[in-house]
Amino acid sequence: MGRPGPRPRPRPGPRAEPGRPPRQRRTAPGRRPGAHERERGAATLRTIARHGGAWLPLIGLASLAGTASDLALPAVLGRAVDAIVAGAGSAGGARWMEFSAALIVLSVACDLVVAYASTVCVADTTAWLRRRLVRHLLAIGPRGGFETGDSVSRVTANAADAALAGPSLLSVVTGVLPPIGSLVLLALIDPWLAGAFLAGLTLVAVMLRAFARRTADVLIRYQRVQGRIAALLAESLSGVRTIAAAGTLERETGRVLEPLPRLREHGARTWRVLSRASAQAGIVGPLVQVAVLAAGGLALGYGRITAGDLFAASRYAAMGAGLGALTGVIGQLARARAGARRTGEVLDVAAPGYGAEAPPEGPGTLRFRAVSAREGEVTLLDSVDLTVPGGAAVAVVGRSGAGKSVLAALAARLREPDEGEVYLDGVPLWRLDQGALRAAISCAFERPVLVGERIVDAVGLGQDLVSVRAAARATHAHDFVSRLPLGYDTPLAEAPMSGGEYQRLGLARAWRAGRVLILDDATSSVDIVTEMQISRTLTEDHGRRTRLIVTHRPATAARADLVVWLEAGRVRAVGRHEVLWDDARYRAVFQ
Ligand SMILES: Nc1ncnc2c1ncn2[C@@H]1O[C@H](COP(=O)(O)OP(=O)(O)OP(=O)(O)O)[C@@H](O)[C@H]1O
């Protein structure tokens, strides 16, 4: 074994003890997020917002220019009114009117730029975020514990909402400028006007704060229930044949739609929050305007301001107190925040880190040193010390639930040990380069899922047809594939396959293993004769690769060089099958 190199830097997580990559926890779906989750959600929101890149400065500048022209317009119109009232002649009034027209054109142009740039920015960010999520979900695999439908809803709907982050944050910032600008400009016209306006503005600010908090809270609950329905639907669709066979269509429909009342409740709450904000806006807005106009009327009476000033003040009061626009952008920001929290929950789960090492020359010896695996409080494997000799065929047996699949997953680094270490030819698995690890160790499962367009893609995963055929011959899949009209080019969706045939293709896919081939009940659906043939092929493979074979069949255990007998997450014994067979409890494992 070479000198240990630097360990790949894992993503920060709650546990980063030296010696093994950290496991991360995530917010349990449905649980109300605490301050920590909200903080992480805010951090995700900022990361997503920053992705807007070049579009955000453009949106910001256009919004600022639009706001400036909106703020200048009442003052300019006021000057036009004063020019007309003073009878300064059509030329003075006309000049102010032209200026006003130019400001209106500028404002419309800015709105167009903001709308276009925001659309492109959101589309870009959505695509980027979806790519990140898909890659990350596939990288973390079952570690994340996200249900299929829920993951789909996070990648589709929630990512699109989260992508609103940049433009909606900017909209909020630029949205508060008109009230602030109005306040300053009113103060310039007359301090009393600003005083009346400020009193109303404080009320508006309190209402907006409550609106923002309530909306974000309701939206996250709504999205969670949506995700739950999606998860239940995906689960049902994957078992659609069973449902049809059992005649439980009605019951299943009820089960999938069971959260619907909660969705309706959250939808109704969203509507109530929005309608309350609109009603408050409907009352406070005109009140602020009336207060400013009353103060303005008095100021005009005392001769402190002109008629044009009063006109401008009325426009500023309307612009600054208009809650409608701000409730819209705050609602959008709340959607982005909820989406960011849901997508952040996925991105916060640490993907396994890989090292940069290739395994040293070796026969494919696997060593488990004090390996434990847990799920919550439950111990699945307890301090397993085990050496699987390089080149040997080793059967793993035990009663159902003994921990055989967990052991197989640890051997392939499909899960991380909670304690201890797994080594391949003396090197901890986490230190191996991802490509080298996958080239060295392959897995075949009881229920393989074949992915790809055609059979050759699903089995070969990029290998040429010659290698695919060789693997299919070795695993007794070649005959039935050859009988298909398009052979290896048959689209998977059009290839009628039995469970055993499917398993043989899964086995053929794993056959590429350079050093260790792990079979987790991978021939359980194959008929006895074919299984014996596969088993013989595996035995003939002697010395070339290590084979770890999880099995329930005594014949397979008998052909193995060594048997590992697991019981309740512990190694009960290791030895030859014929020796272990003397023990009645060992024999009982196969009954
Ligand atoms: N992700 C998980 N979360 C919770 N419990 C788990 C998880 N994976 C496995 N277990 C539990 O760990 C125990 C061992 O599971 P494992 O699949 O390794 O059993 P097994 O020996 O392969 O059984 P079988 O022969 O039935 O396939 C079982 O009790 C199982 O319920």
From TrEMBL:
<dbReference type="GO" id="GO:0005524">
    <property type="term" value="F:ATP binding"/>
</dbReference>
<keyword id="KW-0812">Transmembrane</keyword>
<feature type="compositionally biased region" description="Basic residues">
    <location>
        <begin position="1"/>
        <end position="12"/>
    </location>
</feature>
<dbReference type="GO" id="GO:0016887">
    <property type="term" value="F:ATP hydrolysis activity"/>
</dbReference>
<dbReference type="InterPro" id="IPR027417">
    <property type="entry name" value="P-loop_NTPase"/>
</dbReference>
<feature type="transmembrane region" description="Helical">
    <location>
        <begin position="281"/>
        <end position="303"/>
    </location>
</feature>
<keyword id="KW-1133">Transmembrane helix</keyword>
<dbReference type="GO" id="GO:0005886">
    <property type="term" value="C:plasma membrane"/>
</dbReference>
<feature type="region of interest" description="Disordered">
    <location>
        <begin position="1"/>
        <end position="40"/>
    </location>
</feature>
<protein>
    <submittedName>
        <fullName>ABC transporter ATP-binding protein</fullName>
    </submittedName>
</protein>
<feature type="transmembrane region" description="Helical">
    <location>
        <begin position="315"/>
        <end position="334"/>
    </location>
</feature>
<feature type="transmembrane region" description="Helical">
    <location>
        <begin position="101"/>
        <end position="123"/>
    </location>
</feature>
<feature type="domain" description="ABC transporter">
    <location>
        <begin position="366"/>
        <end position="591"/>
    </location>
</feature>
<feature type="transmembrane region" description="Helical">
    <location>
        <begin position="162"/>
        <end position="186"/>
    </location>
</feature>
<dbReference type="Pfam" id="PF00005">
    <property type="entry name" value="ABC_tran"/>
</dbReference>
<dbReference type="GO" id="GO:0015421">
    <property type="term" value="F:ABC-type oligopeptide transporter activity"/>
</dbReference>
<dbReference type="InterPro" id="IPR003439">
    <property type="entry name" value="ABC_transporter-like_ATP-bd"/>
</dbReference>
<feature type="transmembrane region" description="Helical">
    <location>
        <begin position="192"/>
        <end position="212"/>
    </location>
</feature>
<keyword id="KW-0472">Membrane</keyword>
<dbReference type="InterPro" id="IPR011527">
    <property type="entry name" value="ABC1_TM_dom"/>
</dbReference>
<dbReference type="InterPro" id="IPR039421">
    <property type="entry name" value="Type_1_exporter"/>
</dbReference>
<dbReference type="InterPro" id="IPR003593">
    <property type="entry name" value="AAA+_ATPase"/>
</dbReference>
<keyword id="KW-0067">ATP-binding</keyword>
<feature type="domain" description="ABC transmembrane type-1">
    <location>
        <begin position="58"/>
        <end position="335"/>
    </location>
</feature>
<dbReference type="Pfam" id="PF00664">
    <property type="entry name" value="ABC_membrane"/>
</dbReference>
<keyword id="KW-0547">Nucleotide-binding</keyword>
<dbReference type="InterPro" id="IPR036640">
    <property type="entry name" value="ABC1_TM_sf"/>
</dbReference>
